[in-house]
Amino acid sequence: MENSTYPPYFDLTMFVNIGNYCYPVFVLCFLLYAFIISANLVIIVVISRERTLHEPMYIFIMCLSVNSLYGSAGFFIRFLRDLLSDTHLISRAACFTQIYVIYTYASYELTLLGIMAYDRYVAVCQPLRYHNKITPKLVSKLVAFAWIYPAFSVTACVYLASRLPLCGNKIPKVFCANWPVVKLSCVSTAVNNLIGMLVSTSTVFLPLFFVLYTYARIFLICRKRSSEFRGKVIQSCLPHIITFVSYSVTVFCDVALSRIDLEDLNPFLAVILSLEFVVIPPIVNPLVYGLKLPEIRKLILRMLSQSKPDI
Length: 311
Known about the structure:
76% of the residues lie in helices and 3% in strands. It is mainly alpha-helical.
């Protein structure tokens, strides 16, 4: 009875649909993971080493890169191993650990994007008060809040899910996720749904609405100013907008997929869509900030030129 209600292993069933393509998929995903590690490490090293970049906006960008390394490690290390394995069973402890890592990664991304939106709002709408409002002390508090609150809120969701007696162990994904586990429950999940809704509201929807609100205010300010001012604002805010939009789309796809039967979709499409929010943001973030922000781009090019051996 204990093994049936609290199964020691979960079966990730979506790997069956990859079939003979596991080796080319492994090579592609390994290269993607290598790029994610190297690109985000470059951003972290450049910002941490260059004192001129020790400003709030760049500190937040570095936090995004740290979070990308954290989230991608929680997914890719296990995923690459499962691609070459004949069985796709994951232990109960490992499954809930992966749920915690991936969901805190997703929450960190949104809280950091919300903080960055506030930083851009003050810089554009209250430029004379920027250094008085966005102080190093406030930056430390905001970053601490961005890490601590999601850690505790996701812990509550994972703990409640781990206590549910389950009537199965099959998860129709290539990684562990909270909602598919909750759907296996043999008992009512009303408490899980309530806590999940509260956590989703505070860590997903509130940051999303806050970002939309701040950019609506920025847009209204830009309408009344010169084209030169608008150009500077676009250059400053465009990387954040691209990151926000790409992440919102991937989160929406993941939420939508969790509410439908993936077995009814084309198997390759289902796998690709389920990977979006753990793969695309860690790739997009360093590309956007490394290429769009001239301060970071120049320092990256200088660092790369210095690393070339003299001939």
